[in-house]
Amino acid sequence: MKDPMDTPEQFNDPELLAFDQWLNRSSVQPPANLLPRVRAHLQEPPASLDESIDQLLQQNPDLNDPHMVWKVRAQLQNEPMTGNASPVWYRWLSPLAAAATLTLAFVSFQSSGPKPADADVSLPLQASMESPLSDLDSEMMQIIALASNLEGMSDLSKLESVENLAFLFD
Amino acid sequence: MEDNEKPDSDPSAQLMLQLRDGDEAAFDQIVERWQSPLINFFYRSLSSYEQSEDLTQMVFVRLYRAAPNYEHRARFSTYLFQIARRLLINEFRRSQRKPLDSWDPTELHAITSGQDHQRLTELEEAFEQALKKLPENHRTAILLLKQQELSYQEIANIMEASESAVKTWIFRARQFLKQELKDLV
Known about the structure:
By secondary structure, chain A is mainly α.
């Protein structure tokens, strides 16, 4: 049976045809200097919080909701980084610490073996795993945490893997 | 047309890959190619030339900044209009300034800026008013289908919805428009 919504014929009413024609006409022309103006914008630093949130959320498909940026922004406005944020931080730091520990354990396990010289390899690796943690931007962390909370990821099971956390270290 | 077609058959995606690889002139071509579709998409949603121009510029700025990480996963138009819709929703929210808990996506009706209105015939005015009354997702779906001539599948990808949901939105939008415009034509 044919899907009635696949049959545009039923909408061949004169008003809808006229509407479609009106819609198809290009009603406005872009300004002639649009490109130089875009280029000028590109010289400015990406200061927009929206842009930062947007770019960040795009990295995680679970959070890639076009409305999410507003939910996060509203939460940030309502809950500045004060003591209120500590439970969120705690909830995020736990899986972060767990993931980091697991990763280091895995790296250590891999690097341990019959060749004593290989043991040295784990040190720079450990350093490279730890330094991004200390460099994490606190505001971005809070944004991710808030977004995660808004998505209802309360059990954090999705976060308890190094892979799911990898985007934090980009 | 498949949404994940090869860059060879998607010239704008090819340009984006060139931009990613450092070809600045490719960006100029992207702007040249897409500025008109974008500004008209925004204009039909906002009825404000100034806002439409600002958002069009913002799309290109974001596109440029995203270029270093660009991968051809979908048609370029899908990628572009995902950014455009995201900015449009941000703009609706910014203008409406509604508290989060009272927010309903279906309430995202167009913002009218009186000073930007061109002289419209009575019929065009009716078309514009009818379009404004649609919920954001219905209006965006109709614009992408009829103005941008995109496929249902591509619209679904842009709007991060199922194809059947898009068909339903368009069906309802057409029913609403038919009712609103009755006796006018």
